[in-house]
Amino acid sequence: MDSWVRVLILLGCLFPVLVQCRVRHYKFNVVMKNTTRLCSTKSIVTVNGKFPGPTIYAREDDTVLIKVVNHVKYNVSIHWHGIRQLRTGWADGPAYITQCPIQPGQSYVYNFTITGQRGTLLWHAHILWLRATLHGALVILPKLGVPYPFPKPNHERVIILGEWWKSDTEAVINEALKSGLAPNVSDAHTINGHPGPVPNCSSTDGFILDVEPGKTYLLRLINAALNEELFFKIAGHRMTIVEVDATYVKPFKTDTIVIAPGQTTNAILTTDRAVGKYMVAASPFMDTPVVAVDNLTATATLHYSGTLSSSLTTFTRPPAQNATPVANNFTNSLRSLNSNKYPAKVPQKVDHSLFFTVGLGINPCPTCKATNGSRVVAAVNNVTFVMPTIALLQAHFFNIKGVFTTDFPGNPPFAFNYTGSPPANLGTTNGTKLYRLPYNATVQVVLQDTGIIAPENHPIHLHGFNFFVVGRGLGNFNPKTDPKTFNLVDPVERNTIGVPSGGWVAIRFLADNPGVWFMHCHLEVHTTWGLKMAFLVDNGKGPNEVLLPPPKDLPKC
Ligand code: C2O
């Protein structure tokens, strides 16, 4: 090969140019940056000084190397949310689960290959509450020459929804942990980093989505908020949903999208309305009245080229905060594409049938004055997960004893009316417990919300796998009758699923990825409180069925 050709290919791979190349290199400098939002300035943790952070572009089958250099005072780790990480758990990112964090002044190269996936995902910090500002899009294009299973849109746009606090988010959660109470809700929602005009700060810095009339746009929508599920709407336009969590779905039209933290949605927007400005809105979805949320709507503008600057913006009213039917309508429309090219490989038989309660609890806290000596906690099957001080994957690989146990219960320790009146004792037990699975086991987990303190919608995320959402219902799961209603043909496949408030969901997956895989509520406050556990998947027998050894630069604790 001519050397200049090689230089061109190398340059193409260094920059997010979408040429064919197998290996893509990115450099993430984690640095502080002064940023003004809501008319006040604060210093935030960013990647390369950007908020939201840079987009990672890759194609299916590419190997991606991201060198993360930590220039801030916090320990840092980054998670590539939804990437399967087949045999490369070392690159998954959750601090103290698959790696020790990258300490100030240190670096780590995340090295993984994207296999069997294409679509929109996100990356985010996976330690403390740093993901509030440390997040960005991960766009995986199909292999070169492989079309989308829908007409190719003219253009693509990334849209990241977030939450903004005026004060430092680490101070917000530290304050809450000291008091035993819930942390302050955010001060605004954001669309691509901008809240749009809000009361007391009308600086018109809403995000502008510039479009040309008569075109189609693939909107790659990401919810990077910490604690809130969101509705997303564009005035006067319906969108066609074609993908969620980087899996194709049967296309359907909607005027409202509901999206939980950690979830992604690809929607096609056709700019077929009169030239003008149309309001884009992101507003909270919360159907438990006692749980406080930030009730401000973030607004952006869909701006057709050729619009007169004097023209008024077409307004849209966001759904009510408690619009459960609107959310259900969207959720119930999601079906796997299940085509010949993209079949839904739903496990038809189940080796491990698990029943996990997810919810809150109350434990003693002698130093918590505001609550008279108790604190709010969260648990799965009444176990409040205790973070280890050595990464679990390391402890597993190097056989370090005393870091975790493998006795995570497959059922709640005692049965009660989960969605009815709470039991007398709201206390939980503490532990670093894992549930162990043989390689290639088929697993069903029924996730049952509890009404302890309050029923709530919990977006549960599983690392290392996609799962099929085979069933969903209100009240307590009935093991006799509910499985008869399961969809084992074309259920939606994803990595994060909302357990409905006061209800349950059933998911199935194939444990074909050896390693330690975190499962937790993607509402950061609930993760902090302990709504998390992990699966330990053993190696298989074949040479391609074992966890690879850790890279040399794996951070030390
Ligand atoms: Cu997106 Cu463990 O998280």
TrEMBL record:
Its cofactor is Cu cation. It is an enzyme of class 1 (oxidoreductase). One of its GO terms (biological process) is lignin catabolic process. It comes from Sesamum indicum (Oriental sesame). It catalyses: 4 hydroquinone + O2 = 4 benzosemiquinone + 2 H2O. The lineage of its organism: Eukaryota, Viridiplantae, Streptophyta, Embryophyta, Tracheophyta. Keywords: Apoplast, Copper, Glycoprotein, Lignin degradation, Metal-binding, Oxidoreductase, Repeat, Secreted, Signal. This is Laccase. Lignin degradation and detoxification of lignin-derived products. InterPro entries: Cu-oxidase-like_N (IPR011707), Cu-oxidase_2nd (IPR001117), Cu-oxidase_C (IPR011706), Cu-oxidase_fam (IPR045087), Cu_oxidase_CS (IPR033138), Cu_oxidase_Cu_BS (IPR002355), Cupredoxin (IPR008972), CuRO_1_LCC (IPR034288). The keyword Repeat applies.
